[in-house]
Amino acid sequence: MPKVSISLPDRIENDIERLVDQGEFVNRDQAVEELLTMGVSAYDTGEDEPEVAAEDDFFSQTVEDQQDPALHDDDPDDGYTF
């Protein structure tokens, strides 16, 4: 696997450390690798990409694909409204 060296702003470094400390990732290397993967996959290059596992697909949904669970298609004339 290629190695990359980058400089991060303190805010991002602190966010990564916080995620590792909270147990979201096993270590800093895993956190950086997975966060970069999610960020890169957010950009659809239009090229053929391998299929994503179901658990990974959850994190790559676009805003248009997501649904607000509080959103209802209630009839506005049904009586009670707040």
* Global Rg: 19 Å
Percent range of helical residues = 25-40%
Q: Regarding quaternary structure, how should these chains be classified?
A: single chain
Largest beta sheet, briefly? Answer: none
Low-confidence stretches: none
| Range of strand content | under 5%
Number of helices: 3
Helix/strand/pairing category: mainly alpha
Average of the residue pLDDT scores? 77
Termini, distance in Å? 56 Å
By DSSP, the count of extended strands is 0
Secondary-structure element pattern, one letter each: HHH
Principal-axes shape call: elongated
Organism: Halorhabdus utahensis (strain DSM 12940 / JCM 11049 / AX-2)
InterPro entries: DUF7120, Ribbon_hlx_hlx
Pfam families: DUF7120
Protein name: Putative transcriptional regulators, CopG/Arc/MetJ family
Molecular structure report:
The protein has about 80 residues and is mainly α. The protein has a domain at about 10-40. It has helices spanning about 10-20, 30-40, 55. The longest helix has 14 residues, at about 30-40.
What is this entry, summarized?
By secondary structure, this protein is mostly helical. It has helices spanning 10-21, 28-41, 54-57.
Show the helix and strand layout.
Layout: H1 10-21, H2 28-41, H3 54-57
Key descriptive features of the protein:
mainly alpha; Putative transcriptional regulators, CopG/Arc/MetJ family; single chain; 82 residues; elongated
